Every structure is written in C-alpha cells, then in structure tokens.
Amino acid sequence: MTSPLNQLAERIHDIQTALEAEMEEQRRVFRYRLTQGRVVFEAEVAARHRAARERLASFLARTRLLVVLISPVIYALIVPFALLDLCVTLYQAICFPVYGIPKVRRRDHIVIDRQHLAYLNGLQKLNCMYCGYGNGLISFVREVAARTEAYWCPIKHAKRVVEPHSHYVHFVDFGDERAFQQRVEEQRKALRDGTEPK
C-alpha cells in the first residue's frame, strides 16, 4: 500500500510533468524551437524582438543611480560562485564514484540562454547570463548536496523544512530508529540505481 507521503510525491511529479507540457506549448505560442540546444525564433518574431529592444543609453538613463552604484557588489559574487562551482564539481568527481552515486549533470541545472532574446540590450543580456549562472549553480549545488544527504543521512528533520529537495520525501521519519536501520541500505541502493526507495 502506498503511503500518503508517496501519494503526494506522485502528485507533485504529475504536476511537474504537466508544467513541462505547458512550457512546451508556450514554445509553440511564442514561435520558437530548440535546435541542437539553441533557440531559434521564426523570422517574423525575431524581427519584432529586434524592433522592441531598448537602447542601452535609454535603459541606463532611467536606471536609479543607487542601482548603478551597488552593481559591483552584485557582480563581485562571481568570485565565490566560481570557487563554489569548482569545489562542488571536484567534490562530486572525487567522492560520488566511491559512493556509487550518479553524478549531477551541470548542464541540467546551469542554463544560459536568455542572451538569444533580441529584445534585450547588451547589459540586460549580461545580467540574464549572470542570473542564469548564479541560480543554475545554486540548483546544481543543491542537487549534489541532496544526493549526499540521501546517501549519508536520509532522515527527515524534526522541524519543518521549507521547500525540501526531491529526495527528502523518501527519507525515514525523525525518531524512527528501526526504519532507519532497516532502510538506509535500501535508500543508498535506490540512489545508486536512480530509482525511488519503496
């Protein structure tokens, strides 16, 4: 018999699948396709996008001075982001094969494609590339950490976790020592096989 938690997890999966289908429909509505990972708009749409682009001078003229002054703070984060990227990439390259955990593919998380939008000026494209990298990197790091947690300590917390990762629903309940002892190897095997624990 499927537990209520597993039923909810299945419903979440179904909703995510429906969301993906709706996003595919949006591609049709906005008349673009992905060709070998590259975004290609229909010619008429691309021309309309170019016509809608705001010139950089106009964009900067309407930007508040304080926003311009603090921009170095935002861009300075590239240094710790790059260091985090390097460290986590090395960590999973060294440790995951030993644990038998499948590696997380960076390209599934770090998606940089908004620079193909012709209605963005150069600075907007740079900002979008930076956000795509930063948020994608955090997603990548979260999945590496989630797989590590699923391997070493698949136990739910006593306190509520805001937006737990996808592996969390399969963790054993806090305080259930029997389930932990019985299921820890099952959890690890499921992680290695890329399946969901029972």
Summarize the structure.
It is built from 7 helices and 2 strands, in the order H-E-E-H-H-H-H-H-H. It has helices spanning 4-29, 43-52, 56-61, 65-76, 78-99, 122-152, 177-193; strands spanning 32-35, 38-41. Helix 6 crosses helix 7.
Question: If you had to describe this structure to a student in words, what would you say it looks like?
Answer:
The protein is mainly alpha-helical and 198 residues long. It contains seven helices and two strands, in the order H-E-E-H-H-H-H-H-H. Strands 1-2 form a two-stranded antiparallel sheet. A hairpin with a 2-residue loop joins strand 1 and strand 2. Helix 5 (78-99) packs parallel to helix 6 (122-152). The longest helix has 31 residues, at 122-152.
Number of strands: 2
CA-atom Rg in angstroms: 22 Å
SSE string: HEEHHHHHH
Class inferred from helices and paired strands: mainly alpha
For the sheet with most strands, the description reads: 2 strands, antiparallel
The average pLDDT score comes to: 90
Give the helix proportion (percent range): 55-70%
Multimeric organization? single chain
Strand fraction equals under 5%
Poorly predicted parts: none
- The strands making up the biggest β-sheet line up spatially as 1-2
Distance between the termini: 10 Å
